[in-house]
Amino acid sequence: MSDITLSVQHLRKKIGKREIIKDISFELKSGEVFGFLGPNGAGKTTTIRMLVGLIKPTSGSIQICGYDVNKDFSKAMERLGCIVENPELYPYLTGWENLEYFARMLTNVDDTRIQEIVDLIGLTDRIHDKVKTYSLGMRQRLGIGQALLSKPKVLILDEPTNGLDPSGIREMRQFIRYLAKEEGLSVLVSSHLLSEIQLLCDRVSIILDGKIIHTESVQTLLTQKEKLIWRFSPLEQGAQLLRQVSPSVQIQGDMVITPYIETEVSNWSRLLMEGNIEIKEMNRQIPSLEHLFLELTGGESNG
Question: Residues 115, 151: contact at Cβ < 8 Å?
Fold first, then answer.
């Protein structure tokens, strides 16, 4: 059985004469958290609305666990859970009553499954309290619990940490990681918090002006852009030596910047010392995802 749970191929969306989504493709794998990033107006929300069946694509295909959303809508949606924007909850009902209400819309969801969800989302002590007394983080967890009632394989979360305090963000991050690694869900997370995506996601797609401009594992994306900061004397002579062997050498003030290539660092150091260059400092620099986002998008702000 394929571990691809969500496949998006050549997706396009036109509204009038304007093409909003321009031929995007990506896949989700079982057990991974996938980040979806882009500045305001890039097309994130439009894409998510197509994935969950709220609007139809102009062309292209969306498959959820092998079922085409256009041809087998019901079977595809049975395998999908989602929260687009804020979870829809009834504040004057208890958490349990909310889950019961949504369970009635599904098949084969009994009290045993509701209890499993309650245990999973960590609301056992508060599930019989009215939702209006819940914190925002508790409401978010209850909303995710609602989305998980039907045992979906794919979970789509639009800004799941929006409005949460730092403690709530950390709890939500741990919960999403648990769902992916322990429950085997594929989780797509749309977020403007780049630092959170860096901590949360296995892979990330960056969308700009309706096009995906980069898809990569977060680890690979960061390590590919690692740099080595040098301070040595004399500066110009040392930089000239490094230019003979390094793919890229930049001078910024009293620093020389090269790519970080683990297998070459000792050779470069030896070359400098043999050239009578005094090495004062070597500092390996791992960029943040925010820095890379700005680099890849030409400096556009994220949102």
Answer: no
- Closest-CA residue to 90 (of 108, 102, 106): 102
Q: How many residues make up the chain in this entry?
A: 303
Instruction: Tell me which residue has tokens 């969800």.
Output: 117
How many angstroms separate the Cα of 47 from the Cα of each of 60, 63, 176? Answer: 12, 14, 21
Within this chain, do residues 65 and 140 fall inside the same structural domain, yes or no? yes
Q: Give the list of residues 6+ apart from residue 77 with CB closer than 8 angstroms, or none.
A: 52, 53, 64, 69
Please report, for the domain that includes residue 241, its CATH number. Answer: 3.30.70.980
Verify that 211 and 253 share a domain, yes or no. Answer: no
Whether 56 and 138 map to the same domain: the answer is yes
Which helix (H) or strand (E) element contains residue 140? helix 136-148
Residues in Cβ contact with 9 at an 8 Å cutoff, skipping those fewer than 6 apart: 25, 60, 61, 62, 63
Kindly state whether residues 165 and 57 are assigned to the same domain: yes
**How does pLDDT run across 60-77, given as a tens digit for each residue?**
999 999 999 999 999 999
Q: In 211-296, which ranges are E strands?
A: 211-217, 227-233, 250-252, 255-259, 278-285
Amino acid at site 303 = G
* Contact indicator for 11, 47 with CB cutoff of 8 Å: yes
Give the CATH number of the domain where residue 55 resides: 3.40.50.300
Q: Is 225 left (phi over 0), alpha (psi -120 to 50) or beta?
A: alpha
Could you read off the pLDDT of 105-147 as tens digits, one per residue? 888 889 999 999 999 999 999 999 999 999 988 998 999 999 9
User: Which residues have C-beta within 8 Å of that of residue 38, sequence separation ≥ 6?
Assistant: 44, 206, 207, 208, 302
For residue 15, give both structure tokens.
């509204």
Same domain, 69 and 142: yes
Tell whether 198 and 231 lie within a shared domain: no
Q: Are 170 and 160 in contact (CB under 8 A)?
A: no
